[in-house]
Amino acid sequence: MRKLFRSRQSDVFFIRGYAKSGTNWLCNLMNLHPQIGCTGEFHLRPLFESVRAIQSAPWGILSREKQSAFLEDAFYQMVKQLIRDVCGNKRWCGDRTPCALRSTFVPGVRQLYITRDGRDAVVSWAYHTLNYNFNAGPRMQENLQRFKTDPNYFEQHKQELLACETVVREFASQWNAAIVDDFQMMQSADRAEIDLPYYWIRYEDLQADTLKYRNEIYQFLGLSVAKASPLNALTEPGFGSADTNRPNDFYRRGRAGTWQEYFTVEQLAWFNDEASEALRLVSKNAS
């Protein structure tokens, strides 16, 4: 029989970030610690949206201020208990769904927020659509046929991967909007306007000194660094080698900055047109 009531209740944390920004890698790093269980992606956003819809229904009792607070409290407790039950009896239990901070905000829950240069993210996303046959428009379907015939096609013709202007601009625009909103949330937390304890890590910094930043995150969670296991092939920067490149593998290529191999000058202009604000925010010298 499932044990729902434990002698010590686990704490819950979220790993958040835009898709293809390193949430999976960060999760694997966290799981090197015996007191952390981060099982997978919960994708709870529809539940949060439903609660907000209930709160906004003018005829419902749960739209009233006091009752709305009861609903929020019960819902937040349910979300945290669900994550605990799925992840097991660990000191910390985590959800690593790549999504916006605002979309699943629970006051007081610690957030590990990872950003990645959007140009690397779009290259990773393009390969992800090819590997999993996502419907991303006619041009990507043409790419899919080339990829199925030869998984190394776009490694031999790299600047064809992002040849569709619409695809590049749409990704860049959506990435920009998400990053800007996430930074607004963190700035609100810095001003003590919301209860959002967070640790922001750049993918590029995590790759440059993985142990340093991994250990800082353990300390952010109040855990002993000494208890963690060493890095392995799924947690070392570049997934074991900076030169690793497996086009038809989920862990395709973990090295930062490789976007420069795939973008033409024109393609880079498309991306920069749509995402200049977010690129500034995630840069190392951003204030």
Describe this structure in words.
With 287 residues, the chain is α/β, with parallel strands linked by helices. The protein is 47% helix and 9% strand. The chain has 10 helices and 5 strands. It has a 5-stranded parallel β-sheet, with helices on both faces. Helix 4 packs across helix 5. The longest helix is centred in the middle third of the chain and has 26 residues. It is globular and about 60 Å long. The chain starts with 10 loop residues before the first strand and ends in a 5-residue tail after the last helix. The N terminus is likely disordered.
- The N- to C-terminal Cα distance equals 52 Å
Number of helices: 10
The arrangement of helices and strands along the chain is EHEHHEEHHHHEHHH
Structural class: alpha/beta
Strand content: 5-15%
Strand order of the largest sheet: 2-3-1-4-5
**Biggest sheet details:** 5 strands, parallel
Mean pLDDT: 91
Low-confidence stretches: 1-7
Alpha carbon gyration radius: 20 Å
Overall number of strands:
5
Overall spatial form: globular
What percent of residues adopt helix (DSSP H or I)?
Answer: 40-55%
